[in-house]
Amino acid sequence: MQALGYKPVALDWADVLIQMQTGGVDAVPTVPILALSGQYYTIAKHMTALNWLPLVGATVITEAGLGRACRPPCDPYALEAAAEAGRKIQDASRRENEEAVETMKTKLNVTVHAVSGQARRGVALAG
Q1: Quick one: how far is CA 62 from the chain centroid?
Q2: Tally of domains within the chain
Q3: pLDDT tens-digit profile of 57-101?
Q4: Residue 9 pLDDT grade (very low, low, confident, very high; cuts 50, 70, 90)
Q5: SS in 3 state form for 45-67?
């Protein structure tokens, strides 16, 4: 972010909308579903169509819970079920984000700006 000339500010997600309303921040990198559900569109009427935010998720489980779920060597059926569940979650997440962008564009008057190939390469190089 700094390589692109931005001045990042660490915020709790609960504070983003208030910081946008009061001018504490001018932009927020986030996924579309959070921009929609967090009502960021009420302040920010412009967004970029750039999928660059890495989003990492995990399931946290205690050692005792893991022992009940998967004793070494892990059951290949359990591993395949977990992989399939991960694929379904990823597909649903992508679909929800596409629907959020469409909702903000068509119903909430948010302007979505395409990002040029040159700018995309710049973001990749800066990261």
Answers
A1: 26
A2: 1
A3: 666 777 776 666 666 666 778 778 888 988 998 899 889 999 999
A4: confident
A5: CEEEECCCCCCCCCCCCCHHHHH
Give burial (CB, 10 Å; 0-12/13-18/19+) of 122.
Answer: middle
Beta strands in 1-127 (DSSP E): 46-49, 111-114
What's the CA gap between 127 and 112, in Å, rounded?
Answer: 23
The amino acid occupying position 28 is V
CA distance 85 to 76: 14
Helix (H) or strand (E) holding 80: helix 76-107
Q: Say how many CA atoms lie within 13 Å of 35 toward its Cβ.
A: 27
In which domain, by residue range, is 16 found? 2-126
